[in-house]
């Protein structure tokens, strides 16, 4: 998934720090800015109890599917209802029911709906985020999933698992270069491929995990954990604005959208960490209220919270160590020359601040 701050490629670096600092191999791991849940998924596989949170609803979809959910869904009510034609003989393993339902959704005919109207060139507003065919397919699938939920043919876990697959599939064929802050005027090759849902690789577990859709600074006052992993937004680009279409797919709330990109209202989801006037105070309060044994904070060298302030704040809880790794920056537009960066070359440094409380 194309996502600012996605830590998938940095997981080996994060885990290297965990191992070098001899952090407990079991216990409670809190990922309080979890985003697409890649870090949380990694440590769920390691056997930790997870506490996750994010203010975005699309993140909650991934949290439910990959963190709270601990088994492959059976879709018993849906299959029993005969709303979809099924051959029970083909459902012989724990993976088959999910694969069967996703295969059915992939065969649905497209229907003109909210996504087509607002985000396809053939729609009312001529925006070019999705091809006409893909927009109609997304509408059809999203409506079908919602219909099943309302009719109680699928449970919450099944609902969010299907939504996670839909959001991933929609993002894959979106005609943008990194965020939904703009669509491309020329069709990228991936955007012309057919919308196709894939079977998610779920993580089975016998541990009860906690997921949240809350402000991190409020949640931190109510939880305790062995390891606190912090990965706050590092620049002034609000996630709610940059991933607004994914938020609509998650909520399916028929929002009143406006502007060139069809932006949904997002005032209630603005992050204090993406505003220069509020980020320092928010970070300071988060660290002060953390009830944990260890703190790991990911932040790159172009972040708006100054390195000196991060060190000073963390040092109030314990001795600070900093690990660094360079990597290619996240690019979101083709014409890079107009974009101003703190570091002029194409590489940035990811920093992991470590504190033992």
Characterise this structure:
- The protein is an alpha/beta fold and 357 residues long.
- It folds into two domains: 1-70 and 204-233 and 271-357, Vaccinia Virus protein VP39 (Rossmann fold, 3-Layer(aba) Sandwich); 71-202, no CATH class.
- The chain is built from 13 helices and seven strands.
- It has helices spanning 11-20, 38-45, 57-68, 76-81, 96-106, 114-119, 132-150, 156-172, 216-219, 239-242, 244-251, 279-288, 307-315; strands at 28-31, 49-53, 210-212, 225-230, 292-300, 320-328, 347-356.
- A seven-stranded mixed β-sheet has the order 3-2-1-4-5-7-6.
- Helix 2 (38-45) links the parallel strand 1 and strand 2.
- The chain starts with 10 loop residues before the first helix and ends with a strand.
Brief summary:
With 357 residues, the chain is of the alpha/beta class.
Q: What gap, in angstroms, lies between the N and C termini?
A: 34 Å
Strand order of the largest sheet: 3-2-1-4-5-7-6
Q: Characterize the main sheet.
A: 7 strands, mixed
CATH topology of the largest domain: the name is Rossmann fold
CATH class of the largest domain: Alpha Beta
List keywords for this structure.
2 domains; Rossmann fold; 7 strands; 13 helices; 7-stranded mixed sheet; 357 residues; alpha/beta
Question: Which helices and strands, and how do they pair?
Answer:
Elements: H1 11-20, E1 28-31, H2 38-45, E2 49-53, H3 57-68, H4 76-81, H5 96-106, H6 114-119, H7 132-150, H8 156-172, E3 210-212, H9 216-219, E4 225-230, H10 239-242, H11 244-251, H12 279-288, E5 292-300, H13 307-315, E6 320-328, E7 347-356
Parallel strand pairs: 1-2, 1-4, 2-3, 4-5
Antiparallel strand pairs: 5-7, 6-7
Helix pairs in contact: 3-8, 7-8, 12-13
